[in-house]
Design brief:
Blueprint (H helix, E strand, L loop, with lengths): L6 E2 L4 E2 L4 E2 L4 E2 L4 E2 L4 E2 L4 E2 L3 E3 L4 E2 L4 E4 L12 E4 L4 E2 L4 E3 L7 E4 L4 E2 L4 E2 L4 E2 L4 E2 L4 E2 L4 E2 L4 E2 L4 E2 L4 E2 L4 E2 L4 E2 L7 E4 L4 E5 L1 H6 L5 H15 L5 H11 L4 H11 L11
Parallel strand pairs: 1-4, 2-5, 3-6, 4-7, 5-8, 6-9, 7-10, 8-11, 9-12, 10-13, 11-14, 12-15, 13-16, 14-17, 15-18, 17-20, 18-21, 19-22, 20-23, 21-24, 22-25, 24-26
Antiparallel strand pairs: 26-27
Helix pairs in contact: 2-3
């Protein structure tokens, strides 16, 4: 199912049951796994390694050259898992330095105009709204929801099951399980509806997550002291431990808090 009106380089590796529509561009040194669909005017550029059951819509560009002044033409990679959807005009850059990789996991849905910059690592089952963008070297953990028009600045991490409301500017790390909103961006509550319906998290644990974030954002104490209070007063669970580990290993600092 490869249209004769598409350009497919002879060095591209194309899996079984792949559909490549007219006017698509498939570069050399690419791998497209089984059952993928490449729509008209989409481009899969060199260095892209794509798994199975992905759909790439019109005008999307995968494996684009990094928008990074440090890029000197190294052979770098974009590695994509399975079951992802790249809607119209999505751009994903490959990495900057030889041996480095931009990663897109499994089951992600990137709406129109999303941009994932060089060396960004996107986990599994995330949603990016229209026009959401990351700078380079960002990390987006599993099941995050990034609203339309959100901008994530260089090197920031977005925690698992977090939700960034439309138009936010994330200049620091966003911890897990929270809703983040406003500009300057800050804590807006717990992502309770999604956690209970999709994450199978109990009401008791959701309440404990809220208690933990109250210590950080509403008790007028230092972050270090808030973490001590969480360990002392909030029942332990995998979710609470995930929050503590995320904050303690944050390199950028977390939103809404002065370190």
């Amino acid at each position: 199912m490869v249209s004769p009106l598409a350009y497919v380089d002879s060095k591209a590796q194309i899996g079984e049951n792949v559909t490549i529509h007219p006017f698509a561009y498939i570069d050399g040194d690419t791998v497209i796994g089984d059952n993928c669909t490449i729509m008209p005017y989409a481009s899969v550029l060199r260095g892209t390694r794509m798994g199975e059951n992905n759909i790439v819509y019109q005008g999307a560009i995968l494996g684009a050259t990094p928008q990074d002044f440090k890029f000197k033409g190294d052979d770098t990679l974009l590695v994509i898992g399975n079951n992802n959807v790249f809607r119209e005009k999505v751009i994903v850059n490959r990495a900057t330095y030889a041996g480095d990789v931009t990663i897109v996991g499994n089951g992600n849905f990137l709406l129109e105009g999303v941009h994932l910059a060089h060396d960004t690592h996107l986990g599994n089952n995330c949603v990016f709204g229209n026009g959401a963008k990351t700078a380079g070297n960002c990390q987006i953990d599993d099941c995050a929801i990034v609203g339309s028009g959100v901008i994530i600045k260089h090197g920031c991490r977005i925690g698992t099951w977090s939700l960034l409301k439309d138009g936010c500017r994330a200049d620091k790390d966003v911890p897990p399980y929270m809703v983040a909103a406003h500009n300057p961006i800050t804590y807006y509550g717990v992502n309770a509806v999604i956690l209970s319906k999709e994450g199978n998290v109990s009401e008791e644990v959701i309440d404990d997550i809220a208690k933990a974030y109250r210590q950080i954002y509403q008790c007028s104490t230092s972050l270090q002291n808030a973490l001590l209070r969480i360990r002392d007063t909030v029942p332990d669970s995998p979710q609470i431990q995930t929050i503590l580990d995320f904050i303690e290993h944050s390199e950028q600092g977390i939103i809404g808090v002065t370190m």
